[in-house]
Recover the amino acids of this structure.
């Protein structure tokens, strides 16, 4: 089982990656042709093309989700055993048994128990979740510690905290939280989302923006004022500020 599969705009490997589907995600498959499946993700209704080899028709009931940026799936319940692969945050797995420090999965592999969270339990602070991705590379359409984009960072952090979110920044701007006046930057606080045309970031405090961006090609923290001035040159002015709590 692949931990991440790319969702493409067209049925070709060199096509733009729109988003990613994580291990354990469910989806609707509309058509399979020449090795490609046209699908819609159940979590956010995103549509695109994925390699049909990455899909399975059987639905496995999952019990836990990965609660850290990345964990390892092991071949045995021993930290010195050979890892099978890495599993990203928010991927879901089926735990068959608790074997002390390790959880045995239904597929016979093992994950460190402290890296898992039972379904239905969530991280208490989405900002703290997002901060765990500092210095992760910027990657268009990405949703993991190995690379993610601005709206992917927001969606991953909110998802880990039990808050449903759309995938793209324009849809997030339309559907998340309560709007604040964009002229009143002095009233901002931790957790507010700042939107531009095609971009979004999370405030870690009233003056600091956390965001995945193509200027640094990383997830970074920087002064909000600096970001506003620089982003104005390519995206224009702030279009919205949304408060979730």
């Amino acid at each position: 089982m692949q931990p991440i599969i790319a969702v493409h705009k067209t049925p070709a490997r060199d096509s733009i990656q729109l988003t990613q589907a994580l291990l354990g995600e469910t989806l609707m498959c509309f058509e399979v042709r020449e090795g490609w499946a046209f699908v819609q993700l159940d979590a956010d209704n995103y549509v695109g093309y994925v390699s049909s080899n990455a899909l399975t028709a059987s639905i496995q009931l999952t019990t836990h989700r990965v609660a850290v940026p990345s964990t390892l799936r092991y071949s045995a319940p021993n930290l010195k055993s050979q890892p099978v692969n890495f599993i990203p945050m928010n991927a879901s797995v089926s735990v068959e048994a608790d074997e002390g420090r390790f959880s045995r999965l239904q597929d016979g592999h093992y994950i460190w128990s402290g890296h898992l969270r039972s379904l239905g339990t969530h991280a208490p602070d989405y900002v703290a979740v997002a901060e765990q991705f500092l210095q992760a590379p910027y990657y268009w359409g990405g949703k993991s510690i190995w690379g993610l984009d601005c709206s992917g960072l927001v969606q991953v952090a909110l998802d880990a905290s039990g808050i449903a979110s759309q995938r793209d920044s324009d849809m997030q701007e339309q559907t998340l939280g309560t709007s604040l006046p964009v002229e009143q930057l002095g009233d901002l606080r931790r957790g507010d989302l700042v939107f531009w045309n095609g971009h979004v970031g999370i405030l870690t405090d009233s003056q600091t923006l956390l965001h995945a961006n193509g200027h640094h090609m990383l997830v970074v923290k920087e002064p909000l004022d600096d970001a506003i001035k620089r982003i104005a040159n390519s995206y224009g002015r702030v279009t919205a500020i949304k408060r979730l709590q």
Remarks:
- The helical segments are 126-131, 150-160, 169-175, 224-231.
